[in-house]
Structures are given as structure tokens and as C-alpha cells.
């Protein structure tokens, strides 16, 4: 019996091709939508600059996070009485540092406080308003200070910053190509 010259591709290969085509079309559609509505397309990571200091961070984009989060090295609060809830409204002086070791002190008023609890311990976090820039978009946004030293990114960008100005396309992960 002779071999058939034009055998149909295996079902798995056909499924993989369809998935790849679907992913390409989806990514193109998201980019086109962003252009039509005037929003910047952002990937899973992006370069973000804290405007008062000029320090830039490679940030992880997290659409599941309500507010953005920033790693800090040191925190000084004017008139700190040791009770975090009493520091709301006071001026915080914060030493920030990106992964390249670039440091700067920034100052901002503490606008809120939260105690985050997990199975191991609890952590007090302060919320500040900071001016950030990403992909040409500048915004004042709420940022929580946290110890992100064990995490891969010193900054996390949440929905508060993304809302109204960005479309997230995780297939576009390389900030240089955006």
C-alpha cells in the first residue's frame, strides 16, 4: 500500500497552530483597541519613574492589586509616636532604591495606614501619594510602602495607576519593544 502524499496534520499539531494563531490575533486586537481608545499598551513589566526623585524602577504589572506598591530602604516620620495609626497626616521621608542601586530620599504625607496579616506575622504599611511616569503617562497615585527586598521587582503597579490610561497585554513583556 502506497503512502498517502498529503496526510492531514496530527490533531495535537493542528490544535497548537490554532492556539498560536488565536494568541497572535488576540494580541493584535488588544493593541488595535488600545490605539483606537488612546490608551498605551503595557506588558507584564514596565519601566516606571518616580518623578520627584527621578529614580526609575522595572515594575511588575499586577491587575489584581488595587494599589501600587514600592520597596523602601528606610522610613523616617516627623513626630512618630510609635503608633502607626497616629502617623496618618504626618510627613514621611522615605529612602527608595531600585535594583541597580540608585537611591533617593522622597517626602510625602502619609494618607492612610493598614496592618497586613498573614499566617506568620503582621506588617504595618503606610500609603503615600507619589507622582509616577510610565510610557509617557504621568499620574499622582496612591502607593503603599512595603519590604519587597525578597521579591523580583522593587515596584508593583496596580489598577489605581493603570485605570483609564493603559491596556495590559501580557504577551508584550519586553519594555524595550513597547
UniProtKB/TrEMBL annotation:
Quote the Pfam families the UniProt record gives: Zn_protease
What keywords tag this UniProt record? Membrane, Transmembrane, Transmembrane helix
Report the residue ranges that make up the Retropepsin-like aspartic endopeptidase domain in this protein: 52-172
InterPro entries hit by this protein: Asp_endopeptidase, Peptidase_aspartic_dom_sf
Q: Which domain of life is it from?
A: Bacteria
Q: Which residues form a coiled coil?
A: none
Q: Tell me what this protein is called.
A: Retropepsin-like aspartic endopeptidase domain-containing protein
Which organism is this protein's natural source?
A: Pseudobythopirellula maris
Amino acid at each position: 500500500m502506497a503512502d498517502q502524499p498529503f496526510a492531514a496534520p496530527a490533531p495535537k499539531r493542528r490544535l497548537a497552530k490554532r492556539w498560536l494563531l488565536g494568541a497572535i490575533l488576540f494580541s493584535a486586537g488588544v493593541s488595535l483597541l488600545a490605539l483606537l481608545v488612546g490608551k498605551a499598551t503595557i506588558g507584564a513589566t514596565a519601566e516606571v519613574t518616580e518623578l520627584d526623585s527621578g529614580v526609575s524602577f522595572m515594575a511588575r504589572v499586577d491587575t489584581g492589586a488595587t494599589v501600587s506598591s514600592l520597596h523602601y530602604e528606610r522610613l523616617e516620620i516627623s513626630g512618630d509616636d510609635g503608633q502607626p495609626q497616629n502617623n496618618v497626616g504626618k510627613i514621611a521621608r522615605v529612602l527608595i532604591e531600585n535594583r541597580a542601586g540608585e537611591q533617593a530620599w522622597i517626602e510625602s504625607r502619609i494618607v492612610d495606614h493598614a496592618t497586613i496579616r498573614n499566617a506568620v506575622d503582621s506588617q504595618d504599611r503606610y500609603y503615600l501619594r507619589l507622582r509616577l511616569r510610565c510610557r509617557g503617562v504621568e499620574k499622582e497615585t496612591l502607593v503603599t510602602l512595603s519590604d519587597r527586598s525578597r521579591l523580583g521587582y522593587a515596584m508593583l503597579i496596580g489598577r489605581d495607576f493603570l485605570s483609564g490610561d493603559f491596556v495590559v497585554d501580557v504577551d508584550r513583556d519586553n519594555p524595550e519593544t513597547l
